[in-house]
Amino acid sequence: MTEIKLTGRGVCIGGFTAGGAKDGKYGVAIIKNNSVCRCAALFTRNSLKAAPVLVSRENVKNGIQAIVANSGNANACTPNGLADAKKMCRIAAGALSVDEKNIAVASTGIIGRLLDMGKVEALIGEVSGGLSAGKSPDAARAIMTTDTVKKEISVEYKGIEVGAIAKGVGMVCPGMATVLCFVTTNANLSDAELYESLKSAADSSLNMLIVDGDMSTNDCLFLLSEGTKKCSALDFRHALDYVLVEITKMLARDGEGATKLIEADVIGGETPEIARTCARAIVTSPLVKTAIYGENPNWGRIAAAVGSVADVDFENLEIRLKSENGEATTLKKGQGGDLKQAEAVLRGKEILIIVNMNSGNGKARAFGCDLTPGYVKINAEYN
Amino acid sequence: MTEIKLTGRGVCIGGFTAGGAKDGKYGVAIIKNNSVCRCAALFTRNSLKAAPVLVSRENVKNGIQAIVANSGNANACTPNGLADAKKMCRIAAGALSVDEKNIAVASTGIIGRLLDMGKVEALIGEVSGGLSAGKSPDAARAIMTTDTVKKEISVEYKGIEVGAIAKGVGMVCPGMATVLCFVTTNANLSDAELYESLKSAADSSLNMLIVDGDMSTNDCLFLLSEGTKKCSALDFRHALDYVLVEITKMLARDGEGATKLIEADVIGGETPEIARTCARAIVTSPLVKTAIYGENPNWGRIAAAVGSVADVDFENLEIRLKSENGEATTLKKGQGGDLKQAEAVLRGKEILIIVNMNSGNGKARAFGCDLTPGYVKINAEYN
Predict the structure, then answer these.
(1) Which residues of B touch A381 (CB under 8 A)?
(2) Domains present along chain A, CATH in parentheses
C-alpha cells in the first residue's frame, strides 16, 4: 500500500510561494501562485461575518491567485471594515502584480477595533518583496495570535501534494471550518470535486474541533489548487483528510492554555449524527475538560455529557480511557472500573475517551483540549 | 400596590418544618409538612437520570409530605442506585412516620460512586429527630456541595407565603429546573395551577441560569403546597416568580469560582425565543465570561456570541453594559463606544449586559457568572 509521506514544504508545494512578517501584535502572511488557482472555501456560520469573509466569499468565485491574511485585528464589527478589507486586497494586488478580484483576504484578532491600515500596508510591502519557495514557516508564524507554536504540514501521496498552515486557538467551535486554515495542492480536480473533498474532510476534522465553543466571526478555510497533477478524487481525499486531521490535532494540542489533547471517539451510536453530537458534547463540556486537566477520573461527567444530548441506556454505556500510559475501562455494564488505573492513564498528555453507546453503528471523533487556569488568564487579558 | 415582603422563614412557612446535618462530605436535609401536600415538580432533561429522580417522578403523583435530600453523592450511574433511592425513602418514612410513597428524594454530588447508605441512614436519623419550625438554615446548608453560601428565601404577598432553599453551583445548565431547589407554599391551588405556575416561573429563572453549560443527571425542583391559603393563581405566580428569580441570582452569584454575577437582557428580538437563545448564548460563552472576569471591555465577544446563534444585523445591534459603577454604551449604529467607561462599569460586581437587536419585541433575561481560575481549580479536584 502506498504510504502518505511528510515533505516539509508547508503550503509551498508546486508553484506556491509564501512569506510572513510580524510587527508587534500585527502580522501579515501571503501565499501566492504564479497563476490563478481553483479555490474551494468554507466560512464561519456566525451571522456577524467579518468584512474579509464577505470580500473573500465573492472573490473565491473568480479563482484565487494569492491569499493575504493579517493577525492582530479581526476587522470585524467596525464601521469601515468592508472598505479596509477591499483596500487590503488592492494593496496586495499591487504589490504582487495580481488581479484584485483573485485575492482572498482573511483577518484574525480582536473584534470591534479599527484595523491599523498603516501597519497592514507596511507589512504587505515587506512580505510581498520576499516570498520563498519550498517552505512556509514565516507565513505560518505571521498568522499566530494566542497560538504558542506554528501549525504547518505537507504531504505527498501518489504524486499528489497537499500542504497547509493554520492558526487557532481560541473562539474555536465547529460551526464550519474553524479558525484560519489555508491549504494548497497540485491536484487537478474540478471545482465540485475540490469543494466536496474539502467539505467532507472538514466535517471529520476542523468541524469536530472545540476549544471553547465560541464561534468566530472570521473563520475561513481556503483550498487552492494549481492543477498540475492529474489524479483521482479519492486519492486526493485520502491525502487531504490526513492533512486536516493532523492540523486539527495541532490546533487542539495548542488550544488556549491547554496542557493535554483530548480526542473523543464515540462508537455504537444509533446514527452517525448522534455519535457526532455526543463526541462534540464530551469535548465541549467544561466539567470533562477540567477533570482531564486535574487528571481526575470523574467519568460520571462523560456519561452526563452524553446523556444531556442523546438518549442513553446506562446499562449499555461503556466508557474507556486511553493514553500513552495505557488503557482503563471506567464504566461497563453499569459497573464502574478501576479509578487508580484511570488516574494513571490521565497522567498522559494525549487522552482518548472511547464511548460505546452499544445501540447501532454510528461513529464519530471529536478533538479538543483541557480547560486550565491558563485559558482563563489568556482570555481575561486578551486585547 | 401591595409589596412583596421578605419573611426570613426559608421553607418553614405554615406547617412546614425542616432540618439538616452534615457528616464530612455527606449532608442530609429534610422538609416535612404535617399532612400530604400537592406537589408540582420539574426534573432534569438529561437522559441519564439519577435514581432519586426516577423514584421521585413516581412519588410526586401521590402528593408529597416530606422531602429527603442528600449531598456528597449523586446516586447516579451506579448499579444499585434505584435500590438505594428507595431505601432512602423507606428509612425517612419510618423516621418521620410518613407513608413511603409520599416521600420525594433527591441527591447531589459525584456521579458514578456508590452511595454510603450507612452515613445517609445515620444522618436521616439525626435530622428527623430535630426538625424546626420557623426557619430552615440547617436544611439549606446540608444540601450544599461546592456552594460557598446557603441559598434561602421566603416572602409573603397578600397572605400567600412562598419559601425556597436551593443548592448549585456547578454542572448548571438550563435544561430544566436547575440544580436542587425545594419550594414550599400555603397557596391553595389545583395541581394544574401549581404545575403551570412552576413551569412558567422556572422558564424565566432557573431555566435561564448557566454556570458552565453542563447538564446534571440529578436536577429537580419541587413545589409543595399545604393549601391553607385561598388565593388567585396570578397572585401566587407573582410571589413565586420573585422567589425563583432571587434564588437564581443567588445561585449565579455563587457559581463555582465566580467573582461576578452576569445578567444578560436581550431586547428587540424578532421573537421571544430568539431573545432567549441569544441571552443564553451570552452567559454561556467562555470568552464573554473570561472577559468579564478580567474586567476587559471586549464587547466583540458579546456580538459574536449573539451572531453565532441568531441572524443579526450589525448596524442595528446595540450593546450596553451596566453595573453599580454606572453604564456604558459599547456598540451603537455600527460604532464602538468609550472603552475606558466600559472598563469602569466592569469593575462592578453585578454586571448587566443589555443587547438590543432592534428587530422586534422579543425579550429575555439570562443569568450567569464569570469564568475564573477558581472554577477550573474546583472542578479539576472535585470528587
Answers:
(1) 294, 296
(2) 5-253 (3.60.70.12), 261-381 (3.10.20.340)
